[in-house]
Amino acid sequence: MRKIIVSNYVSLDGFFAGPNGEIDWFVWDEETEGYAIKLAASIDTILFGRVTYELMAGYWPTVATENPVITDYMNNTPKIVFSRSLNKADWRNTRILKEIDPQEIRNLKGQAGKDLVIYGSGRLVATLAQAGLIDDYRIFVNPVVLGNGKHLFAGLQERLKLKLLSTKTFRCGVVLLHYGLETK
Question: pTM for the complete prediction?
Answer without folding.
Answer: 0.94
